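Note to self: the last two entries modelled the partners one at a time, which told us nothing about the interface. This time every component goes in together.
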Amino acid sequence: MHIVVCIKQVPDSAQIRVHPVTNTIMRQGVPAIVNPYDLFSLEEALRLKDLHGGRVTAITMGPPQAEAALRKCISFGADDAILVTDRAFAGADTLATSFALASAIGQINKTHAVDMVFAGKQTIDGDTAQVGPGIAKRMNLQLLTYVSKVDALDLTTRTIQVQRRAEGGVEVLTTQLPCLITMLEGTNEMRFATMENMFRAARYQIQVWDRVTAGIEDVTRIGLKGSPTVVSKVFAPQAKTVRAEIIQTEGDEPRDLTLTLVAKLFTQHPKLGETIVRRAA
Amino acid sequence: MNADKAPPRKAGKGKFELDERLKAYQGVWVFIEHERGNVHPVSWELLGEGRKLADKLGVALSGVVLAAPGLAARRFCEEAFFHGADNCYLMEDAVLSSYRNQPFTKGLTDLVNTYQPEILLLGATTQGRDLAGSVATTLKTGLTADCTELNIDMENRSMAASRPTFGGSLLCTILTLNFRPQMATVRPRVMAMPDRDSARRGTIIEHPLGLIETEIVTKVLQYIPDDQQDKPQLPFADIIVSGGRGLKNADNFQLIWDLAMVLGAEVGASRPVVQAGWVELERQVGQSGKTVRPKLYIAAGISGAVQHRVGMEGSDVIIAINTDPNAPIFDFATYGIVGNAMTILPALTQAFKQQLAVAKMAS
Amino acid sequence: MATKFDAIVVGAGPSGNAAAYTLAKSGLKVLQIERGEYPGSKNVQGAILYSDALEKIIPDFREDAPLERHIIEQRLWVLDDESFIGSHYRSDSFNKPPYNRYTIIRAQFDKWFSQKVQQAGALLICETTVSDLLMDGDRVVGVQTDRLGGSVYADVVILADGVNSILARKAGFRPELRPGDVALAVKEIHFLPQEVVESRFNISGDAGVVIEMVGKITKGMMGTGFLYTNKESLTIGVGCMLSDFKKQKCSPNQLLEDMKAHPSIRPLMEGGEMKEYAAHLIPEGGYNAIPKIYGDGWMIVGDAGMFVNAAHREGSNLAMTSGRLAAETVIELAAAKKAFTTKNLALYRNKLDASFVMKDLKKYRNMPQIFHRNPQFFTTYPELLNKAAHTMLTVDGVDKKTKEKQVRNSFKQKRSLFGLMGDAYKMWRAFE
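The predicted structure of the combined assembly is written out below.
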């Protein structure tokens, strides 16, 4: 069995620290991490490997420093890691990214047949959740997103059964391999790397592929050129013209402040006041 | 999408000319998402938004329904008209009774290729996201996810979709210039629910799917509904009391619950609080959590950074409590108290109690 | 699977990197284990890089090390509540390469240093904590980590695990850290445009300024403050003896806030955007607090050995030097095919004694005690000195002789003649 897991290295926006006195948020020196959603998918792939044997290959499309993220995957137990990196990928949106990754996985498939592809549900820096479905479409893989549990995998009949989160419940689906799965967050917990895997990760030679090695010939399909979406501007959220009315009383005692606030609220927003009274009743 | 890597291109500078063949694409479409006989409210919210876009462009607004044959499908179309659609594309087939990626992707892409809309909107739900990525890749067009605002750039008749970027600290506007349809997903509760006019009528345009069950690889074996008890229902709550890092520890967070109880409110939280395990994931409000539009949102110990802001700025009245007078939340809240949540919250709970007691006596 | 290395270095801070680099460069098989997510993630420093110490390890470090500004001016400020009296030393010779000291940003510097260590051939593992030393009787034979299969063996283990070295304490090489032996320091990095930094401090190019501060800013506690210029930011910080913080029930963060508000300091920070905050313990006990630093199969380097010269605020150079000397000890013994016994590792101590490390620490061995017991050096004298300057510099019709008498009397009044003599003697002893 051969599973390919797509990961992405992202800035750790969750590691923002708050200054103890001023409570301002500080983002400086935020380290790069493996996209947390990808880890749920990687852990699931490793579990399937534990059960059925085979290999797990981690792959990412990114800048040279994304190597560290791949190394992390090796430390968790991935057998191989491939960094697909090329200047030509710069500016890629999700369509161009899925094209590049699909090409690369297609190349992997030529030497070592790929049974399943796992990807993260979404990234914490892009949040689009589009690359997984994009790869599935291009490679004609059965798409299973928001999977909360892999119930069963039968490699002889090449069928897989999963539980998938829907709006008000869980669907039990079955489909044929090859498929692409994105795991729901919180469905598993990444294993603690063994010392042996830590050593392996420290020594591992990451395979680095440029676009040619990844099997990409048509450069109009990658990078900025291959991206239908364009960022036309980046801006700060509009400051509301009217700032909050700050409640102040003499002495600023909590009791006075809150009584004043509630009084204002009920006077200036009578309908809301009615709603509150009704709900509390 | 790699918004941080793409250099901002000046859209509309100099005469931008849409490819001839793409000029044929007209109309705004909204995918009407349904599951087990119910339409997801986000579809109506998108019709409301779609109406504005269609009016600006001077084109028709259409709903798209893919469903099993029967009365339900027709009802969905009717409801679409009530919420503003001019017509509804209907694809009825037994294999469409439950959502599956393969038939729905084929169905929707066939419809798009046949009737050529310039804009296609879907809800950013599990179903919507599963479908949108597949459809966009098949059509080789641009898809912008989790948009917080949609506009028309009249200079080149393009849809300008805005969404958070750079970890949520800034916003960016994204255009799909030379590809059609321009696709976007929007999270539930981001757009306002439009009025429902049961007198409105529209045209149904039918189209066959052209797939039979044996051609579809994925099968749905079973559906297990959730245990509905005690599940937080934040997106539709009228009053929400929300707590953030400023509360310092899980014990203090009890003050939020106390106030919520007095108000009959739902309890929400910012992302760090959820990550610290003080409350469950379902209560997270913000860019990577729920979007809410309550009548009253009380935010205690929350700074108001963009990631949280985009999840709750649609609230009617916002009360902010924070020790930092420069906290961004005071920029867009309605009322603010600069103070320590640990002392203000209990006082506020008392103040509301008093007010409610007075109101009760008066009634 | 038990793996064996020639040497294991616990910690990837400056002392650990110095040791690992030197060992790896000589061809020895080295494993370096860091408990943080990445080298430097648990490290905090001002920070000043001392070329001399690093040159002796990586002679061509200037080629690609991330350096902020080379220091051409050093200021010493003695602060009162609203004023300061101080001295500046600025030299053009400091502005001629090769430069002697640089300000650095530790996150970037540590990353660079670690890359060098790995390029030299050392194997680095992060996010792994060494929980115990593996012993064979009294001899250290390896380390136990918190990972499955995590026991690793080596001929010698170098402990470079920082001021709060739990390993050293567990193994009994050093006692529990006493609040009187460490300072707690906090620092912030404020970002300012390059031109603003340069115009405010009268520098250009990559030249930089360092301000060391003492006085009322530490509110009677024993400690110092500092302000360094980086390319596009300023680092400001303050630290005091942990025991003083505890006694005074003062928060270091509040101390820093008040310091930033000082009328002489605030204008320098004006308009800056604070983007980083860090706190850390710093060894202050000096010579008398140095624990056992070598034994059967082990050595201690860096902050774990309390190698910090508080008087001159030098720590990273002592750390790097001790790391290098420990490595050189290993290399020499290995070459002579000698075992890493306590007797043989005494060579490490000898090397330290012969270097500035022990010499400087010995010189200032009395300072911590003296200053700690004499808070007047941080309160009364700064006040007196500032008032004296104010008196002498104010032209108000009072004749100079009267003014001088006023100043003398103010000193005598506050400290008495006896006290003044005593203080002078204490100062002498502290620096001798």
